[in-house]
Amino acid sequence: MPDNLASADLMAPDLLDPPAGRAAGASGDAPAAGDVTEAGEAAAHGPSSAPGGESEAGEPWADGRWAAWRRRWHGAAATLTPLLRRPGFVLAVLFVAFVILSGLVPSWFSSYSPSATSPTDKLRGPSTSHLFGTDELGRDLFSRILHGSTLTIKATSGAVLIAVVAGLAIGVIAGFFGGWVDVLLMRIVDVLLAIPILLMALTIVTALGFGLLPMAIAVSVGITPGFARTTRAEVLRVREQAYVEAARTGGASWSRVMLRHVLPNSWGPVAVLTVLDFGAAVLLISALSFLGFGTPPPAAEWGTLISNGRNYLVTSPWLSLLPGLFVGLVVFSLNHIARTLEEAQR
Amino acid sequence: MLRYLAGRFAQALVVLWAAYTVAFVILHVLPSDPVTLQLSASGADIGTLTPAQLHLLEARYGLDDSILVQYFRALGGALHGDFGMSLTQNVSVSSLIADKLPDTLLLSAVAIPITLLFGVGIAFLAIYVQWRPARVLLARLPAVGVSLPQFFVGLLLIQVFAFSLSWLPATGNSGADSLVLPAVTMALPGGAMLAQLLTRSLADTWGEPYILTARAKGLSRWATQLRHALRNASLPALTLLGVIVGYTVTNAVVVEAVFSRNGIGQLAQQAVLGQDVPVVQAIVLIGAVLFVSVNLLVDLLYSLLDPRVASAARVA
């Protein structure tokens, strides 16, 4: 097995160069293509196991794997370091991390219960005791926003997860098989793209009813076509590469080529689109819950909070405007992350 | 050229038919029963009705036929502009839409010039201005505009211009001044997207040799940008503008909810809240018609504006 690895390393420069950066990107935290030579070695172990037997898993194998992991880690670090030197990017990542963490464990960041009413403190403006003020029942708005994050994050990640899986599947199948399968799938995608996303979402919410899950499904159907398109374009590009031909000539099956070679190397632009669509999904889901299609009270997503605050806009504008600003910041951060990653990939 | 036109037109029709069908399938095949939906929307309990009464209701809306019969009847009706009866309001869907659509189209007609003003203005200045901080600010501004939720912008505008300054009315459909805030809100995301695209393509165009020629001949920066750069950079922006105009109905949903305006968007919100299937179906079709026809128009404009597209079509 060590021989096998060594020979694969020798092969690496000419055959495996183009996919290497992307493969490292896909496996590391950053989907950005990095230092090609370094990452090229890191990715070499993947294709190398294709021609060799996979049954033996002795000590040397583990050693080789460990080395590969270390090289991969260095590759990821090399791509990450320049990103860390951009303060805007770091700030955006930190803010998104804070939102996710506070959505998962809201109690760490706010001592108030989101549903604890306090008639003496109603409609108080932002202060040190109530960071974002209180609503018409005296509930702490900051705590309600953080608990709203939990719901919004659930719906958003559900929507994006479904869209990524479905979009990748459609795109890979269409791009890889080509012919009538491609034509059929892309015509369907065209039709879905011709229905404006929000209208599609409204249709699905009408059919499925209100709440988190219907909203997540509605949004995912809306953003899937974009993923399918992007993935297909990437697959079409990767399919023509020499290393795919090499893998086929080497006797790898279609499914293996698809899973081990085409999919990992088409992943880069899709990853950027994922971050971007997270922002779009947050906007869509808060719009849907603003329109009143979200979870029933007293639970409240961001959109519902903003919508409820409208009744007190004259006297207590913070009730609507602070949650609105919060949503804006989240989306802005996500967009900024996506754009920085896209620039790094070029 | 004629063949190209006919082909594009046929394609648009197929997309419309398919969009209608997709909406129909979602609304009718998914596990939801219109009668139950309607009853629960109006607060009645399905258990209190006898089977005979239920059957009567179903027969009234033609729901006792098979799904295929219903589909072809609905499709045939839609072709004649007949979308059936609303389930929640006792009027025909077409009269509801005829009642609401003009308000939305008016709003959109005001919003689109503002979109253009935002988009082209910011992009033009972002490239023209040479003082670095202003340049950076103008280039970053659209990213903020794209990220802010439309309803937040709307509420902020209401708070500032209606409640604090009392310059403009906060809600309603009366008079021209009630159009201003909704139109600005509606224009903002589109304008920001347009500005992003145009800034990028203007910056690309500045590197072209013909710009250098124009500058070398002594044309001012302003004139060069206006006459040479902007014209060439605006082709991709035209496509985006088509998408923005095509999204009128979608944009109207949120804006009309924020400003409590009458219109097709408000109708859409009420229809979804009342799970009024025929109304939702009709609104999806109208949204798709608008989207597809505007994009068809943009494609045709393209072949007029860019001779390369027309000649490519002729060859093909």
List the keywords.
heterodimer, A: mainly alpha, MetI-like fold, 2 domains, 15 helices, B: 316 residues, mainly alpha, 0% strand, ABC transporter permease (chain A), transmembrane (chain A), transmembrane helix (chain A), transport (chain A)
Query: Whole-Å distance between the termini of chain B?
Result: 10 Å
Instruction: Specify the CATH architecture of the largest domain in chain B.
Output: Orthogonal Bundle
Number of domains of chain B: 2
Label the overall shape of chain A.
globular
Order of helices and strands of chain A: HHHHHHHHHHHHHHH
The proportion of strand residues of chain A reads under 5%
How would you describe this protein?
The complex is a heterodimer of chains A (346) and B (316). Chain A has 346 residues and is an all-alpha fold. Chain A has helices spanning 2-15, 17-27, 36-43, 45-48, 59-84, 87-104, 141-177, 179-194, 197-208, 212-239, 242-249, 254-265, 267-290, 302-309, 318-345. Chain A has 2 domains: 2-85, no CATH class; 88-345, MetI-like (MetI-like fold), CATH 1.10.3720.10. Helices cover 73% and strands 0% of the residues of chain A. In chain A, helix 6 packs across helix 7 and helix 7 runs parallel beside helix 10 (212-239). Chain B is mainly alpha-helical. Chain B has 2 domains: 2-79, no CATH class; 100-315, MetI-like (MetI-like fold). Chain B is 78% helix and 0% strand. In chain B, helix 8 packs across helix 10 (221-246). Chain B starts with a helix and ends with a helix. The chains are: A mainly alpha (346), B mainly alpha (316). At the A-B interface, helix 8, helix 9, helix 13, helix 14 and helix 15 of A face helix 1, helix 6, helix 7, helix 11 and helix 12 of B. Chain A: It is found in: Cell membrane. Chain A: Keywords: Cell membrane, Membrane, Transmembrane, Transmembrane helix, Transport. Chain A: Residues 17-60 are annotated as: Disordered.
